[in-house]
Amino acid sequence: MDKVAVVTGSNKGIGYIIVRDLCRRGVGIVYLTARDEKRGLDAVETLKKEGLNPVFHQLDVTDKESVKRFAEHLKEKHGGIDILINNAAIITADFEKTTYEDSLNVLNANYFSVLTIQEYIFPILKDNARVLNISSDAGHISNLENPYWIIRLTSDDLKLEDVNDFVNWFLDSVKNETLKEDDFVETGILAYRISKIALSALTRVQQKQIGRGISINSLHPGFIKTNMTKNSGLLDLDDAGIAPVYFVLDADQSLKGKYLWFDKTEKEWTDHGLKIHSRMEIFMEHVKMNNKDY
After folding, report:
1. Neighbours of 263 (CB within 10 A)
2. From residue 234, how far is each of 160, 203, 264, 281 by CA, in Å?
3. What is the pLDDT along the chain (294 residues), one digit of tens a residue?
4. What is the pTM of this model?
């Protein structure tokens, strides 16, 4: 399969497994990217021992120059890419507290970075390319309780400025200490929730704008045991690539602008009544089972 695929933040965790599984499926060129060059190269070497041949390129999604350099490399070397999986993300430093500095770091890594990728890498997507934004159950609209933002974000006429305004409203309220708990279904991992709600909403905006037969979807990959979750979860890391690989290789190309689930189903993102939000008691129960510090 002579395709070029890029997976951001893929030296470990879900991204690493996606790279592995794309290689196993015979995708022509699969880019394993990482902010830290040594970790990225080590990950490539590990996969080579399995007989797989991903290509490493340094990429810090929060650094505009790094994204720009990578886009130029891809254009020069391949003319464009067929598959883009926006996986790079971080979680809140403290699962139960919300601070401004931490919130800003999370939003930069998980949301604003995807706007940078849109600016530099979307122009080199080939016709009928597939883009998958790795979201979360923390990214469904049912994580919100604020009526104004629920209505604005689920509007058929959603625009980028709406999503940006939502993110900035959150950051301003944290900075000014005007955050209201009633605006959210739960306040655990709150900046992470906001980043993934924004990413899921952005997916809908991107799909409306992109054209050229390209499909852009967001995916909740499941509660997977990764470093990010302190190795807690309901699914083994080894299975983390099943849904992402299915949606970029096997799913019908007509699937566009959707919010997808790890069991390969589609969930209606705009349906606040679904109540499929991330539940902190389940999350923390698993964290405590696996970590004596909690």
Report:
1. 10
2. 34, 26, 16, 14
3. 689 999 999 999 999 999 999 999 999 999 999 999 999 999 999 999 999 999 999 999 999 999 999 999 999 999 999 999 999 999 999 999 999 999 999 999 999 999 999 999 999 999 999 999 999 999 999 999 999 999 999 999 999 999 999 999 999 999 999 999 999 999 999 999 999 999 999 999 999 999 999 999 999 997 665 655 555 555 677 788 899 999 999 999 999 999 999 999 999 999 999 989 887 766 666 566 666 665
4. 0.93
**Structural domains for the chain:** 4-290 (3.40.50.720)
DSSP output for 149-187: HHHHHT-TT--HHHHHHHHHHHHHHHHTT---GGGBS--
Which H, E and C letters describe 181-217, residue by residue? HHHECCCCCHHHHHHHHHHHHHHHHHHHHHCCCCEEE
Q: With contact defined as beta carbons under 8 Å apart, do 171 and 112 qualify? A: no
| 8 Å CB contact between 163 and 208 | no
The residue from 16, 31, 111, 192 that is catalytic is 192
Structure tokens at 208: 């409306």
**Residue 90 CB coordination number (10 Å):** 17
Question: Residue-wise over 28-46: b if at least 16 C-beta within 10 A, else e?
Answer: ebbbbbbbeeeebeebbee
For residue 238, give both structure tokens.
């080894």
Half-sphere exposure of 260 (CA within 13 A, CB side): 27
- Residue indicated by tokens 């290509």: 55
16 is catalytic: no
DSSP letters for 115-127: HHHHHHTGGGEEE
* Max CA distance (Å), the chain: 54
* R_g of the chain, CA atoms, integer Å: 18
